[in-house]
Amino acid sequence: MFQYFETNYVWSLAVAAAIEMGGKIGEIETMCRPLLEVARQGDDEGTQAFLAAWEAGGDNLVALAEEDKACGRLLSAGDKLNRAAVYFITAERMQAHGYAPRKALYAKFLRTFAEGVKLSGENTQRFEIPYAGAHIAGLFTPAEGVTGAAPCVVIVNGLDSTKEMVHRAGLFPQLLAKRGIASLFIDQPGTGEALRLHGMTAVANTEQWASPLMDYLQTCAQIDPQRIGLLGVSLGGYYCPRAVAFEPRFALGVVWGANHNWGEMQKRRLDREGERPVPHYWEHVRWVWGASDIDEFMALAEQVHLNGVMERIKVPFLVTHGEADRQIPLEYAHQSFDQLTQSPDRELKIFTPREGGIHHSSLDNTANAGAWIADWVAERLGGTVR
């Protein structure tokens, strides 16, 4: 993984993710160069400076986009707004939950992302799926070259990502669309809009939101109700298998980064084992899970494992993991795969240095790993790989 901040994995992970989402290295260098000394102070110190630098970089692109719009150059404006949105969400994600400017920056990000998609002519539309008196928001990209209802993959976030971040990484919606597969990236409870705007915290029994989601998708004319798969990224490597195990209408499942026993991993993190994904980590996980203190969080986390769950899965299932993942041990991928005893078509894919994608959720090379996953899905949902 490209480690811009040599002594700071967490900050470098944010840079790597921004590049995978379409950020430009020259713009990122301008934002990051003043932060080099600050980054040496550790994960948590200096995140406010990180926000200021990256928001300024995004604001500059917004100003340039306004100039494009004044000249009628809407496609150019859209491209700049798309990158500005990447920089805004990267900065927002790095902040402590209680840092006041975070809320305003998230609102700015949503506006910028929506306008960028519109002006750049991206074939993506917003879905709002009714849930718990509010809604689960999603980004839907239709399949290409398909007449009538198409197969679809629903993609869920990890601990700290949002639907827009996962949607941008490695052009995954386009990879699926070219293979005749529609995609729906959602902010499930505990992530994105669900957490930030509606206060929906994460739940261990993910079928609680996956089944109403499936009910909704059964009514969508663009989607074949018999060919809906579910893919989870990072902590989605827990959310996804749990949902597929208890919601039998999913036609297949994929984890992009196994997370077989996340609760156990929290105990290991208390012992300083493994890298963390975000600064202010313990504050972040308490926010995501709605826990008032570390003891309540650890009690909730004990429920977040897949022992006794994987055996319930009776559809094709793919487990992927990066060989050099520094956050989640490779052993968890083997545990998830070994327990898929009832799946009629199971596969374990370990990404190696030869093809890239060896770090957490392939943030060092989402393109190659994403294409491999898209091919696997297409071969099983009736898409095309030619």
From TrEMBL:
Q: Which GO terms describe its molecular function?
A: hydrolase activity
Q: Where is the Peptidase S9 prolyl oligopeptidase catalytic domain?
A: 174-378
Keywords, in A-Z order: Hydrolase
Instruction: Respond yes or no to whether keyword Acetylation is given for this record.
Output: no
- Spell out the Pfam families in the cross-references: Peptidase_S9 (PF00326)
Q: Which PANTHER family does the UniProt entry name for this protein?
A: CONIDIAL PIGMENT BIOSYNTHESIS PROTEIN AYG1 (AFU_ORTHOLOGUE AFUA_2G17550), DIENELACTONE HYDROLASE DOMAIN-CONTAINING PROTEIN-RELATED
Q: What is this protein called?
A: Alpha/beta hydrolase
